[in-house]
Specification:
Length: 256
């Protein structure tokens, strides 16, 4: 959903981890980025969880590294109390999981870290995106375009009967972690520079859903609006190099 600095976030996690062994690792909201990174680390074993079979098949196909016999790739839902019940991991990664929860277990966000607590033996790393759609109009031109694109994307996703992502601020995560039996060790923000790939991906993302809508006049108007946003954003990327707006975060926590 976002053009984040994957390598910067993961590099930061590696730095914070230091000499601590990764041990048994849980990738609680897996994807091509987190699993590609994870398979390159010295882990004893890993378990990767996704809520969608489509995502599972896609990730499995995209990961080039062979899985070891001790590694597991699971489709499941954190709202299911039986998922990985009784297991524990030295390192747990909740990488852009919180923002995606709404699509799989709406309103479960406030229970997520409580759910991950018994599974976390050593350390929990949470990555996320500061919400940028439900905000007042940003002041910079780049900010306004990213905001408009986000609002357009989410409106189209809702119109096509699906649920958009719901991001949470780092402070919400910190407060929730404290209530869920974790002690927060650190919070670090990273500025984001959006490029052409992000702009195109966001506008293209909504097209299949819009095609299913019966009101062709509405669909044509929405598509035209999307194309106007795309053109304006791509032109600004051309002149400014990137659209600088929004921040990712990495939060490090350990069980109390
Ligand atoms: C945005 S993706 C995570 C990004 C990913 N780590 C990457 O490599 O870019 C969110 C992941 O969390 C999973 N997910 C969301 N809600 C879930 C839930 N309630 N139970 C299990 N998995 C869930 C999704 O299926 C998806 O695999």
């Amino acid at each position: 959903m976002s053009e984040r600095k994957h390598s910067a976030l993961y590099r930061y996690v590696e730095r914070i981890q230091g000499d601590r062994p990764w041990g048994a690792v849980l990738d609680a909201g897996t994807g091509v980025n987190s699993l590609s990174w994870l398979t390159g680390l010295e882990t004893d074993r890993w378990t990767a969880v996704t809520g969608s079979i489509r995502e599972a098949n896609w990730v499995r196909g995209a990961i080039k590294t062979a899985f070891r016999s001790q590694d597991k790739f699971l489709e499941g839902n954190w709202a299911d109390p039986d998922l990985l019940q009784g297991e524990a991991f030295d390192t747990v990664l909740a990488d852009y999981l919180l923002g995606a929860i709404d699509g799989f277990a709406p309103y479960f966000q406030q229970c997520l870290f409580q759910r991950l607590r018994p599974l976390t033996r050593g350390r929990l790393y949470v990555t996320g995106l500061e919400p940028y759609v439900p905000t007042l109009r940003p002041e910079t031109k780049a900010g306004q375009l990213i905001w408009e694109i986000g609002r357009y994307r989410d409106a189209c996703v809702l119109l096509s009967g699906q649920r958009p992502y719901r991001e949470y601020p780092a402070q919400w995560v910190v407060d929730n972690l404290a209530r869920s039996g974790f002690a927060v060790q650190s919070v670090k923000h990273f500025k984001i520079s959006y490029k052409k790939r992000f702009v195109n991906a966001q506008i293209d993302l909504v097209l299949p859903g819009l095609e299913k809508h019966k009101d062709r006049t509405l669909v044509d108007a929405l598509k035209a609006h999307g194309e106007a946003l795309r053109a304006e954003a791509l032109a600004l990327v051309e002149t400014e190099g990137a659209l600088k707006h929004c921040r990712n975060y990495v939060i490090v926590a350990e069980p109390v």
